[in-house]
Amino acid sequence: MQALTKVITICLLAIIATTQASAQTRRPMTFEDMMKMRRLGDIDLSKDGKWVLFSATDVDLEKNTKTSHLWIVPAAGGKEMALTASLAGESRGRFSPDGKQILFLSARDGGQQIYLASFDADNGTIGEAHKLTSISTEADGATWSPDGQNILFTSSVYPDCATTPDPDACNKTRDEEQAASKVKAKIFTTLLYRHWNAFAGDKRSHLFLVPASGGTPRDLNTGDSHEVPPFSLGGPDAYAYAPDGKEIAFEENLDPVPAISTHVDIFTLRLDDPAAKPVKITTSLGGNFSPAYSPDGKYIAFRSQARAGYESDKFRLMLYDRQSKQTTDVLPKFDRWVDELAWAPDSSKLYLVSGKNGSAEILAATTKGSWQPVAIGEFSDIHATSNQVFATMASVTRPSEVFNLKTAIEGPYAGNDVLIHSTNVTRLTHLNDSILSQLDLPKMDTFWFPSIGNVHVQGFLIKPPNFDPTKKSPVKFLIHGGPQGAWGDSWSYRWNAELLAANGYVVIMINPRGSTGYGQAFVDGVNGDWGGKPYIDLMRGLDYAERSFPYIDKTRECALGASYGGYMANWILGHTDRFKCIVTHDGMFNPVSAYGTTEELWFNEWEFKGKPWDYYGKPAATDPYVKWSPALAARNFKTPTLVIHSQLDYRLDVSEGFQLFTTLQRQNVPSKMLYFPDEGHWVLKPQNSQLWYKTVNDWVDQYTKPKQP
Question: From the CB of residue 387, how many other CB atoms can be counted at a distance below 10 Å?
């Protein structure tokens, strides 16, 4: 027995030594490492529950390209396999209802179109693909009808071409004429003439229906001058089929001035009646999104906001009874956002994704109004079978992968009580295991601290690789955008906390008032108070971290933020000298000029409680545009500042960055500006991103690390 114990002890010591050696051989992540990682896209589940189809994007840094391809993995576990590999790429793969075909989008033959390929469910392979559509305005967002006979998709067209004998020929001619014209001037007669990163023009997104066997696509919004569906930066589909395939539900904003409106309604449209007109089923003054028919056809579930003009109002789970035509708020006492929803096959419940304390957990909710948690993590893109949920999940140390959650919930639902439940979570894909195994990616710690108004606020901290607690480390203090956003246990390619920590920094992130996942009152705490309580939350969070973590060097800290985080960096610039440097990306500098140059006016009018001229002649203390203006604190600017802004950013016009840089230069404050002529609110091109990280890290190093001889 003693000999056996000795052998076991030796083996355990050997395992520990091997593990420690392995950890020591890992290295800090580089930008090039991050660009080699395969980026998971959306997923789809075969109707028999045996296969998960997904897209994944490869980045070629040298060629400055991103290319998406389709992959597949057995739902029960196994090796993921690539299905497509064309140079043009493929995306949005979807199984046909009978499981015998896959549709996808590709520009392999010019503009993006819908392609179909046969699918072998026995071995998970596809046959040769053929092009289904050849519409001149291209195709997007394709989805199967429940019977597999038709495919619904979107395309941006000229609404007036619908009255011509050949609408597609009309659209093609108009596009060619505009491209050939030497006059590039534009004439505007309404607002929202540009949006996000492009000018609107005369085209509008419409829904189209095309037979899966081929044929001419049918415009379901003929002559409509509105966007169907409205503009979106991603998330759940804005349209859905009824289970019998004879009706669809879709989103549309019919307000006369969409630039000041967040009022999106949901409409239904019969497909079996060519003369049918859309029928509005929503009544709230705010936005209504993500329609989803219950599998039994009785309900349409959707996400709804109550308040007009507020894009960050609480997203509630609503049920529309198709027979009684009554709508019910399913979870009136649930005080967090419903970000995604998916029906269980038996229509007894819905699975939801909702942000909570820096994560995005999955919940199960019944149609009777009870709910309970299923799994906690940074989940998204959920799909349900009778006893399983499939979703993507990321963490701060790993990009998104596909997961299988085998749920076994015991006992009846009872409101928001946490009942006995178990979840067997299995990771199905391993897209980046090889490169991640080489990297030292420290785990993220969390802390809570008291702030103004008897409110507790959450913060997060990431130590640098090869961390030595006996040494003082400099700090990168990150401020999130939104302002209705949140830091948490998630991966980002644009502001990657692990990469920002990799060159020797403690990274600190605070979720101040305005952050999501802490109840709607916490979200609303930033409205009309941009430089008030959120600023106090941030400073008290940093104070707490400095007191609590002795390895922080509070004499070497830099504040970095983008969007609202850029605004807050600008506000910090005029209200404290505690930082050695500042990085401000796409931030608001002058609220009055930002109002005149933005496109989504509803945002500024809500957050600053009206229009600038509403306050003319009134005391400055009552004017949020004055009270919370970083520009008016310019005399206090002293901290070295890197300004970053992009020409195609129409949310916060590039002039905001130019104004700030001019002010810094004329004040003789050490400053630099990084300007991207070909990016919008986000820096997305690989080589531009490489320059962004290098410029940011060099700037912070310059002011927080000892000068090298």
Answer: 13
With a cut of 50, which residues of the chain have pLDDT below it?
1-21, 409-421
Task: Note whether 569 and 561 are within 8 A (CB).
Answer: yes
Q: Say whether 563 is catalytic.
A: yes
Give yes or no: residues 575 and 545 share one domain. Answer: yes
One of 44, 168, 219, 649 is an active-site residue; which one?
A: 649
| Residue 408: predicted pLDDT | 56
pLDDT of residue 20: 44
Looking at residue 532, its amino acid is: G
- State pTM to two decimals: 0.94
Write out pLDDT tens, residues 461-504. Answer: 999 999 999 999 999 999 999 999 999 999 999 999 999 999 99
pLDDT, residue 383, reads 97
Verify that 465 and 614 share a domain, yes or no: yes
User: What pLDDT, on a 0 to 100 scale, did the predictor assign at position 24?
Assistant: 61
Domain assignment of residue 632, yes or no: yes
* CATH number reported for the structural domain that contains residue 699 in this entry: 3.40.50.1820
Point out the catalytic residue in the list 400, 586, 681, 689: 681
pLDDT of residue 413: 34
Verify that 535 and 407 share a domain, yes or no. Answer: no
Same domain? For 495 and 433 the reply is no
Give yes or no for a contact between 151 and 212, defined as CB atoms under 8 angstroms apart: yes
DSSP string, 230-243: PP-SSSS-SEEE-T
CA–CA distance, 451 with 534 (Å, rounded to integer) = 10
Token look-up 């071409």 returns: 161
Say yes or no: 524 and 453 in one domain.
Answer: yes
Domain that holds residue 493: 440-704
Are 492 and 376 in the same domain? no
Angle subtended at Cα 640 by Cα 461 and Cα 552, rounded to the nearest 5 degrees: 25
Does residue 574 form part of some domain?
Answer: yes
pLDDT for position 407: 72
Cα-trace Rg, the chain: 26
User: Of the candidates 687, 569, 683, which has an alpha carbon nearest to the alpha carbon of residue 630?
Assistant: 569
Q: Is 205 a catalytic residue?
A: no
Task: Assess if residue 569 is contained within a domain.
Answer: yes
Annotated active-site residue 272? The verdict is no
Q: How far apart are CA 671 and CA 704, in angstroms?
A: 15
Rounded Cα gap, residues 531 and 432, in angstroms: 40
Q: Per the residue annotation, which of 91, 400, 563, 689 is the catalytic one? A: 563
Last residue in a domain, options 396, 421, 439: 439
> 84 in a domain, yes or no?
no
